[in-house]
Inverse folding.
């Protein structure tokens, strides 16, 4: 039997990159997945890929920063599948600048997407989780649920030019620590994965030449320049950036029954690189 058979998972930002690989991996291991992305086409494409492989998934399109999003996202899982077992807070992007040039808009955009959105999603999940955990406890059953928040080496070690992103990714570690203590009584393992250099469009050297992503109508520059990428890869003990599949593997570990006694931890998935 697949390890996540019967489980229901929310994965934010799963239209592309690491989130897409997480959604595919969880589905391959038996979970039914609610796929979210800001962009409709990639979200529907991930759903189609899961279904083509024999899995089950539905899309919940929209920005995680929208005030009504969290209720819609949790509602999609509970409404469609009548359950909620795994929450992966992955959606995000970077919007870099040195502090003297960083605007309030840049600052709050990072806090909103990396910190406030996970907080709201977990708050929206609380009523279902508490009710389910109480019923399971009364029936004498111990059922573990999983929260995996996505941080970054920038959040545990800091990164120049990313005061906003580093602060938000450190904030999500704090959220993880607090909730691990608050939700232990409901048998929820709350952990974090902090990625190092993973090859996605966020770190794509070819995108550094001027590619931009559209977030809420704003064009935001992504990618890194090729020299910086090469320098970063040379600093990784394993000798290269990670693949989205390798990144998804770290998240999957924290969703399995083998991690049932691990909570409040941040695992660094960075090929041996530590800051
Ligand atoms: N790639 C890396 O090296 C790296 C390193 C550390 C942390 N991370 C983190 O991993 C996560 C995934 O990043 P990635 O590298 O896969 O990037 P990506 O750009 O390849 O994929 C991110 C996906 O999230 C979506 N998204 C962005 N903002 C959203 C929003 N407001 N609402 C819903 N969806 C939204 C995007 O549309 C995109 O499809 C992010 O939280 C990122 O900060 C990545």
């Amino acid at each position: 039997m697949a390890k996540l058979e019967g489980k229901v998972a929310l994965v934010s930002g799963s239209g592309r990159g690491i989130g897409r690989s997480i959604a595919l991996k969880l589905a391959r291991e038996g979970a039914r997945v609610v796929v979210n992305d800001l962009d409709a086409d990639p979200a529907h494409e991930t759903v189609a890929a899961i279904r083509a492989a024999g899995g089950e998934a539905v899309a919940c399109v929209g920005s995680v920063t929208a005030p009504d999003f969290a209720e819609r996202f949790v509602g999609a899982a509970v409404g469609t599948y009548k359950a909620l077992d795994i929450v992966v807070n992955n959606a995000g992007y970077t919007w870099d600048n040195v502090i003297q040039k960083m605007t309030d808009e840049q600052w709050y955009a990072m806090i909103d997407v990396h910190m406030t959105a996970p907080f709201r999603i977990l708050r929206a999940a609380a009523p279902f989780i508490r009710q389910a955990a109480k019923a399971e406890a009364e029936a004498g059953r111990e059922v573990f649920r999983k929260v995996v928040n996505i941080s970054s080496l920038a959040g545990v070690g800091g990164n120049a030019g990313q005061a906003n992103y580093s602060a938000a990714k450190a904030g999500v570690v704090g959220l993880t620590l607090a909730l691990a203590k608050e939700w232990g009584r409901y048998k929820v393992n709350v952990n974090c994965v902090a990625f190092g250099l993973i090859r996605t469009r966020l770190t794509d050297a070819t995108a550094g030449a001027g590619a931009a992503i559209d977030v809420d109508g704003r064009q935001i520059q992504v990618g890194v320049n090729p020299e910086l990428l090469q320098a970063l890869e040379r600093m990784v003990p394993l000798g290269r950036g990670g693949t989205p599949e390798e990144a998804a593997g770290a998240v999957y570990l924290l969703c399995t029954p083998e991690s049932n006694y691990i909570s409040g931890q941040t695992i660094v998935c960075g090929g041996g690189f530590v800051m």
Remarks:
- The pocket of nicotinamide-adenine-dinucleotide is lined by residues 12-13, 15-19, 36-39, 42, 63-65, 90-93, 113, 150, 152, 195, 197-198, 200-203, 215 (CB under 6 Å).
- Residues 104-138 form the longest helix (35 residues).
- The beta strands are 8-11, 32-37, 57-61, 86-89, 145-152, 188-195, 212-215, 218-221, 266-269.
